[in-house]
Amino acid sequence: MDDNDYVMAFDHFYTTNHIQILKSLLPFIDNNSANMLPAIIKYMELKYTLSVTTSSAHQLATNISACSTSDTENADASDNLERIYNAIRRYLAPAEDKFFNQIMSTARTMKNVREMQQMLELFQSINPDMNMDFGNMSDGIDINEMLQLFNSMKPT
Predict the structure, then answer these.
(1) What number of CA atoms fall less than 13 Å from residue 149's CA on the CB side?
(2) Which pLDDT tens digit goes with each residue over 113-137?
(3) Where exactly are the structural domains of the chain?
(4) What is the spatial distance between Cα 155 and Cα 36, in angstroms, rounded to a whole number?
(5) Which of 11, 14, 28, 133 is deepest in the core (most CB within 10 A)?
């Protein structure tokens, strides 16, 4: 899906044509005479969304998930991060974008380390006489240290 398709799918499921018409007419209405119109439109959207989510029509909206299990059953978490990033990147502030890219880079690095470890284990299973004992590479990775690293990279 294109970046904006998720927003359009959400609007399709959680708004009506009349609300869309009101939104389209906003630029043509004098600001002084329609101060409350944006708030009224948001109220109408909220009211309609609440009515849809409590009805059976809500089942239709499950198709707008960016990382639904039907699309990503065999996908790695870093692949889902890429998809999420592509969906939200135009709305990120520069610091948030930089932070998100750092997280994705770390996830890719961890994925590569796991793949290399699997490759080494495969080579060792093929030829047990090979001296490729690097230990368990994941033993040196402390989850708490990684969380502290992520916290230190958060945008201010």
Answers:
(1) 10
(2) 888 888 888 888 887 776 655 555 4
(3) 5-64, 77-153
(4) 35
(5) 14
